[in-house]
Amino acid sequence: MSQISGHNYIGGAYSAAGDTVLQSFDAVTGAALDGQFIQATREEVDAAALAASAAYPAYRGMAAARRAGFLEAIAAELDALDRTFIDIVCRETALPAARIEGERSRTSNQLRLFAQVLRRGDFYGARIDRALPQRQPLPRADLRQCRIGVGPVAVFGASNFPLAFSTAGGDTAAALAAGCPVVFKAHSGHMLTSAWVAAAIGRAVEKTAMPDGVFNLIYGGGVGEWLVKHPAIQAVGFTGSLKGGRALCDMAAARAQPIPVFAEMSSINPVLLMPAALASRGEALAAQLSASVTQGCGQFCTKPGLLMGVRSADFTALVEKLGTSLAALPAQSMLNAGTLRSYEQGVQRLHEHSGVRHIAGAPQQGNQAWPQLFQASAQLLLDADKVLQEEVFGPATVVVEAADDAQLQHIISALNGQLTFTLIADEADLGQCAPLISQLEQKAGRLLLNGYPTGVEVCDAMVHGGPYPATSDARGTSVGTLAIDRFLRPVCYQNYPDALLPAPLKNANPLGIARLVDGETTSARLIEH
Amino acid sequence: MSQISGHNYIGGAYSAAGDTVLQSFDAVTGAALDGQFIQATREEVDAAALAASAAYPAYRGMAAARRAGFLEAIAAELDALDRTFIDIVCRETALPAARIEGERSRTSNQLRLFAQVLRRGDFYGARIDRALPQRQPLPRADLRQCRIGVGPVAVFGASNFPLAFSTAGGDTAAALAAGCPVVFKAHSGHMLTSAWVAAAIGRAVEKTAMPDGVFNLIYGGGVGEWLVKHPAIQAVGFTGSLKGGRALCDMAAARAQPIPVFAEMSSINPVLLMPAALASRGEALAAQLSASVTQGCGQFCTKPGLLMGVRSADFTALVEKLGTSLAALPAQSMLNAGTLRSYEQGVQRLHEHSGVRHIAGAPQQGNQAWPQLFQASAQLLLDADKVLQEEVFGPATVVVEAADDAQLQHIISALNGQLTFTLIADEADLGQCAPLISQLEQKAGRLLLNGYPTGVEVCDAMVHGGPYPATSDARGTSVGTLAIDRFLRPVCYQNYPDALLPAPLKNANPLGIARLVDGETTSARLIEH
């Protein structure tokens, strides 16, 4: 493991007080990888939360530009990791090197984008209402508002993006940007990857002189519960299963002081195929859908898991072509043995359901996942049967044919909340799409037209969120710069003298940011009165 | 009751299916007032939630300027209510006419301020990242984001502001502004007032042709539980007790689909008196504090309930003067019999506690509330004894003397989350105040200097919120324009043609609003590419 430790990283130091030893495995061969990981003890979890808490005042109090420098330093450390690192991630996750290289860029660019947000300053939400001493019947005091980090954040990484949704991934980046120290619970599926990334963050902490405890990492199963229940933790970020996410939400809600949990959990990402598009390019659509469903072995939160259309010869033809296309594709290795087991169970559930018919796909066998296509009756969705609403994580998808437009609308109404909802439509279909959009807005965080939901751009306008159970709180996103909002809260200063105000609210506007002053947005400096 | 009905108002019609009859009382005499109120049945609560749900697509889909017109129409209807109405509010709450007149203005101006926000358009949070078809290694799709109302909102009014925090109060105004229909649960303390205001809203609905069901009102004890558990309800606004608010939070978190609850609950609003200010103007401070503690019979969420300072002759003198001042003030009628009983119990708790000493105030007797001053040992706060952290709603306050600056800091650390934290300081004190501010920011939503927390300005910069138990979610405010954010969620449109995009995101920027376009804020129209 060279310089990499399998010990918990707490307050800037490595710690291994426990005696439960964990092992990481090669995702393809199942062989144990070099190195051992020491599960955190209750005391170490406490220590990690307290280290984050101790770092919080200094970290959130520093200039946002310094935090930006820290994020950029992490990005540079990630980018500097060599081939050894990429090989390790590939071995732990069975993901190909090109994908991991791309994901590493995405992760470091995500950190750099948050650095830009910190310099841009709109995250402060600065608002100033100046005093109106002559106002009748009562004068108005000077009132100024900006946002601060909520406090230490617990982050639970996802298995399927070992970099972009993990140790230094979106939730960590958003929390650190917001001024919130992080305690990261490593995913059991890529602990060695986490150790490398944590070491990279550690070097960035040192180079930019951040407080110890700004980032902490713990290993182990079941230790997350202690973390979420710790009084020092003020918010939680999670990407994973509905069961796991909901359990964290319930724990957080039952605390003496309840805290918000932003859990990204379960979505089947419906795709609605419109008639003109089916008629004009059914063959191409089948090929594209097949690629989207099986990309990365179907291990995306945004994998299209439900394909819908109104009954027609073109729709039937598409289903047939899609079946042929999926059946011709090879099996792929999944992220780990648990993921494969869960995929097998999901596929089995569909096989066994009387309302679901298997269309194509080799019998699920061996230690890889075979692509599968099923068709279900529309009535199943209308009956709110759970089998179709449950995400099957892996390269499987389900087709549903509506009898007519009216039934299609009913089906859409019956759907749970989603991360994405995609329309595949030609120009001639758009008139028919328009009245659906209001309904789609209520169902999902991101609406796509003629694209595929796999592939989530990291930018200002992205929403990777949506109504429950897609996430636990539709008001947040876990990808894109708006993700920082989850970890900020407003504070108002009444009648504070300029010297005591934080930089974003001072008269001279030393940060040069846009502020809402007396109801108008301006970057101007204010005259003292 | 003239044109006023004591029936539930559901989907634009009055409904009285139940047989539980409720009565409103004169707050001073205890006499029953004219008119009866019919408690909502389970079916009526369902009907109200479904009426709100049915109104939601049309209401949130309409132009924000139309919603602004609706809010202004409600304001005009409120302002047009005559002396009969004011008399009714006074009789139900024992609040004086001048206060009610002022509160009515505050309420209608609050609605008008939200109308301005709707026209200003920053609530949309519009963000546009234009397509980058040539980008390497992958092109970027066109991505646009704006915010929509989350869905029907349940609002629970407060007793202490029968207009501004009630039927057409802050939560209702914020939800309606966000595009969310409201089901309002009337407070038992001012049902007649609620009926009048609901009728005013009903007239505004009619005049501005809003959908039936945009506003609904239900009466009754225990009916709130059905409302919060109803699947159509997507968020909850509440102002009241910690016990009541926490119960709603727990119900909402336990739903099949958990929903956010914004509960404003319990705060003791600490005031820290600094040495130079005590020395230079102790007498004036005692008079001002006395006025702030007893204003409106101490029935403000922001009443200063804890006065702190470092031990000194000046501090002792202030306590003495404050005692004299409070003892000289008359008893006042409280909002209702329940509030008086709760005040008596709170005062009794302080009397009985061995760590608390009674300083001044007539024995609590009769059917009015007498101002009371207590002094507690600093150790009580350090021991996290609950007696001092619990809000006593009414004209009582507690003084705590710290041995020195170090103990003062420990006391501040030991405090629960607060709505406000006030510093009373002279120029010479400011140097000593500065290092405290970081700590105060962690404790409260609003920090004041040389003012009193009673009196909450309705403006852009206000925060009426704060860490638990002041509120259930420190990221929200229930006063000021930022309150709208609680009821909005972002939606992203990927690759949507201009014709299908909502107005705030269209290229031509027909609303003329500021938008974040490719990382820069601009009101410009965009060129189609």
Automatic annotation (TrEMBL), chains A, B:
It holds the Pfam family Aldedh. Residues 27-456 form the Aldehyde dehydrogenase domain. The keyword Nucleotidyltransferase does not apply. The keyword Transferase does not apply. InterPro entries: Ald_DH/histidinol_DH, Ald_DH_C, Ald_DH_N, Aldehyde_DH_dom, Aldehyde_DH_Superfamily, ALDH_KGSADH. CDD domains: ALDH_KGSADH. One of its GO terms (molecular function) is 2,5-dioxovalerate dehydrogenase (NADP+) activity. This is 2,5-dioxovalerate dehydrogenase. It comes from Pseudomonas brenneri.
